[in-house]
Amino acid sequence: MDDPNRDVNADANADVNPLEQALHAARALVLADLAAGDVARAEVVSLVEDSVSHRRWWVEQWPEGVAYVAGLVAQDVQDALLERYGRWPLCPVCPEAGPDGPHAPEDGPHALDVEPELGPDPHWVCGKAGVVVAAVGALGSRGETTTP
Asked: Which residues on neighbouring strands pair with residue 111, listed in sequence order?
């Protein structure tokens, strides 16, 4: 007979694969950033799924890299968006173009970078101003504009 006091969530969590947890978390973080910029259209979500699938294989080959999955998925999606649609996420720190900005007007809007490139706890960073904008998954939490 089942024990009514047993923790059902503990049983469910005991069977969860850390790799799958990391992949699901990475997917959720990047989708949150895409949604914050109103960029989470079906074709863009497919880019996230493609990256998660590729990174699943990558982490199966190198299990120690599981802590790096979120940053890598963010970079993969950023690269795929650049090839197809343009820069994402745009830097909310630097003005799009103007003489008072930290970069020349001809530079135009630039994308944020993921740092560290290969490491845990990835953040979106403005490389020109040297400012951490938000953790991956937290764009828009302070009103940043991220639409490409």
From this structure: 90
